[in-house]
């Protein structure tokens, strides 16, 4: 699979966040994706009903009390409340289990 990191980004419900879907579960739920977050974007508090693993490829991903930079890994348990923001923007590989 060739991934177009320039023109392959689809819009999400949150302005300033783009996605490239890499894989889905058999039931259609998102499994693996790349996310690109533009500088200055922040989200409201939210959760996912599955485990979420995040590997930051570039930029800065911020959560309450944590700053993740390129090469950093974060994991969130199912239904764990979180919000994200970024000063410089970031790209991350995200896996939902």
Q: What percent of the residues sit in helical stretches (DSSP H or I)?
A: under 10%
Poorly predicted ranges (pLDDT <50, ≥5 residues)? Answer: none
Tally of DSSP β-strands: 7
What is the end-to-end distance?
Answer: 21 Å
What's the rounded overall pLDDT mean? 94
Main sheet characteristics: 7 strands, antiparallel
Shape: globular
Q: From the alpha-carbon coordinates, what is the Rg to the nearest angstrom?
A: 13 Å
Q: Give the count of helical stretches.
A: 0
| Percent range for β-strand residues | over 45%
Structural class by sheet pairing and helices: mainly beta
Which series of helices and strands comes N to C? EEEEEEE
Write the layout of secondary structure elements.
Blueprint: E1 10-11, E2 17-24, E3 30-37, E4 52-63, E5 66-69, E6 73-76, E7 90-96
Antiparallel strand pairs: 1-2, 2-3, 3-7, 4-5, 4-6, 4-7
Would you kindly provide a brief summary of this structure?
With 97 residues, this protein is an all-beta fold.
Could you walk me through the main structural features you see in this protein, from its secondary elements to its overall organization?
This protein has no helices and seven strands. It has 97 residues and is mainly beta. Strands 1, 2, 3, 4, 5, 6 and 7 form a seven-stranded antiparallel beta sheet that branches.
């Amino acid at each position: 699979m060739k991934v177009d990191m320039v023109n392959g980004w689809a819009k999400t419900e949150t302005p300033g966040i783009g996605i490239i879907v890499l894989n889905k579960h058999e039931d259609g739920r998102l499994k693996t994706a790349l996310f690109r977050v533009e500088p200055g974007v922040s989200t409201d508090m939210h959760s996912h009903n599955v485990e979420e693993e995040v590997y930051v490829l570039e930029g800065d991903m911020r959560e309450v009390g944590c700053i993740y930079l390129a090469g950093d890994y974060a994991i969130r348990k199912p239904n764990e409340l979180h919000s994200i923001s970024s000063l410089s923007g970031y790209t991350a590989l995200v896996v939902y289990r």
